[in-house]
Amino acid sequence: MSSESSHPELGGTLVTCSPGVLVGSETTGSRESGVLAAQLAVLRFTASSEDALQRGIEEWLSANYPGLFEREARLSAANRPDFFSPTTGVLIEVKWSPTGGSLTKVVSQLARYAEDPRVREILFCSPSRRVVSQVPDVLCEVPVVGVVLHTGL
């Protein structure tokens, strides 16, 4: 289970993960998730909401990686990421903007996912460059790759 604590001397709030592993900022994503991240980053999605953006990503994943990713996969009763590949351990979470306006909630959600031993990497996708830039590169020893998505109508 993850928890939050305030550490002004370290620049803000840290999320700790069982068993006491701190959030880091070291990029260690695999080559495969890097390729997927690069592919997603150059696409343009016609979307005006998080749901529409997820549908666009789902269509693209189905066409380019058929059968590899499950939509709304259940890691547990409380954890249901947008996309997950049980084969590779790559999880994709999409946010239009931070949940309830809180980046802390987004990071806590990603940390919960990272605690699952099946999750090897997380791709965090959002059209908000600010949100993507503020998500840590590592949560609970799991690499997090940020992807800025291009959207428009």
Short description:
The protein is built from 4 helices and 11 strands. The chain is of the alpha/beta class and about 150 residues long. The strands form 3 sheets. It has a 6-stranded mixed beta sheet. Strands 1-2-3 form a 3-stranded antiparallel beta sheet, with helices on one face.
How would you describe this structure to a colleague?
- With 153 residues, the protein is of the alpha/beta class.
- It has one domain (23-151).
- It is built from 4 helices and 11 strands; from the N terminus they run βββαβαβββαβαβββ.
- The strands form 3 sheets. It has a 6-stranded mixed beta sheet. Strands 1-2-3 form a 3-stranded antiparallel beta sheet, with helices on one face.
- Mean pLDDT is 80; it is low at 1-29.
What characterizes the major β-sheet?
6 strands, mixed
Q: In one word, what is the shape?
A: globular
- Beta percentage is 25-35%
The computed structural class is: alpha/beta
Question: What secondary-structure arrangement, pairings included, does this model have?
Answer:
Elements: E1 3-7, E2 12-17, E3 21-22, H1 31-42, E4 44-45, H2 50-64, E5 70-71, E6 83-84, E7 90-94, H3 103-114, E8 121-126, H4 129-134, E9 138-139, E10 142-148, E11 150-151
Parallel strand pairs: 4-11, 7-8, 8-10
Antiparallel strand pairs: 1-2, 2-3, 5-6, 6-7, 9-10
Please supply descriptive tags for the structure shown above.
single chain; 153 residues; alpha/beta; 29% helix; globular; disordered N terminus
